[in-house]
Design brief:
By secondary structure, the protein is an alpha/beta fold. It has a domain of 169 residues: Rossmann fold (3-Layer(aba) Sandwich), CATH 3.40.50.150. The protein is built from 8 helices and 7 strands. The protein has a 7-stranded mixed sheet, with helices on both faces. Bound molecules: S-adenosylmethionine and prephenic acid. The site of prephenic acid has 9 residues, from helix 1 and helix 7. One of its GO terms (biological process) is methylation. Its EC number is 2.1.3.-.
């Protein structure tokens, strides 16, 4: 991203009381640095979106990016696809994120159709879409709201459309989970975060970011109506899934 982004130092000094994590002005100011240093594989996941769209998106169809933050997925798509290939709608609840995303997208990809809507993805009036991206957003919704959202997204997708779901995940096996989380903390240390930053951020995210298992994600996608989903990317405790809404009579992906 070309924007003026500060280095994330939010949890670098000892805090008397660690507040619940929120996407406020301070987080927005350092968000590109924070997410790049905190999410293993973030850049690779973004880099694949254009390739997935080139393969699965109907020409000119809408792409929703739900919980778009600064519009990174929109920027990635615009960098890989011509303007006529898609219309982008980013949605985010945080006014500070939305303001910055609008500025960035207008400056960086003026020829593409890019809009950013401020709103709650649980209540949005969805228009038909060819692709829906949820990159590290579902994990911030209350668990009891996740099924209803996924069903609405399934309804909004055109037949032949795809949903990309990237999340922090928890492993079913306790030891496997502990190993992944420990190596994740090593990953953060290697990216310049101190033990204090790692521990205070962990406290701030408790009961705010509630991860599911991969099995729970696949089961939810199936309940929502998706005939197939698979995990296409995993790096420690972060993963990305793709779910397909079959077009009636169309050959299944991988059978072409
Ligand atoms: C980890 S960030 C997403 C990162 C972003 N997708 C990217 O790839 O850079 C999660 C975002 O979800 C947004 N969010 C959380 N709950 C939301 C909701 N109910 N409706 C809309 N946005 C929401 C937050 O404001 C935040 O910007
Ligand atoms: O730092 C962590 O522990 C994270 O889980 C990273 C994570 C995420 O996965 O959404 C958490 C909050 C920030 O929005 C950026 C990244």
């Amino acid at each position: 991203m070309s924007d003026a982004s500060y280095r994330d130092a939010i949890f670098s000094t000892p805090l008397d009381r660690v507040a619940r994590f929120s996407f406020d002005e301070r987080v927005v100011a350092c968000f590109p640095d924070m997410i790049r240093r905190s999410v293993p594989g973030y850049g690779q996941i973004l880099g694949m979106l254009g390739l997935i769209a080139a393969r699965h998106l109907r020409h000119g169809a809408r792409v929703y990016d739900l919980g778009c933050s600064l519009g990174a997925a929109g920027l990635a798509l615009a960098g890989q696809l011509p303007p006529a290939a898609f219309r982008y709608t980013g949605v985010d609840l945080s006014p500070a994120m939305v303001a910055r995303a609008r500025e960035t997208l207008a400056a960086e990809c003026p020829d593409h159709a890019m809009e950013v809507v401020e709103g709650d993805i649980r209540r949005l009036d969805y228009r038909p879409a060819g692709m829906i991206v949820l990159n590290f957003t579902l994990q911030f919704l209350a668990p009891e709201d996740r099924d209803a959202l996924m069903s609405r997204l399934y309804q909004a997708l055109e037949p032949g459309g795809v949903l990309v779901l990237s999340e922090k995940v928890v492993a079913e096996d306790e030891q496997e989970n502990a190993w992944r989380v420990e190596r994740y903390h090593d990953f953060k240390r290697a990216n310049g975060y101190s033990d204090l930053e790692i521990s205070q951020k962990r406290t701030a995210l408790e009961n705010v970011l509630v991860p599911d298992t991969l099995a729970a994600h696949h089961a939810r996608l199936e309940r929502a109506g998706f005939s197939r989903s698979h995990t296409w990317f995993q790096f420690l405790n972060f993963a990305s899934l793709i779910a397909f809404k079959d077009a009636p009579g169309a050959p299944r992906d991988g059978e072409t």
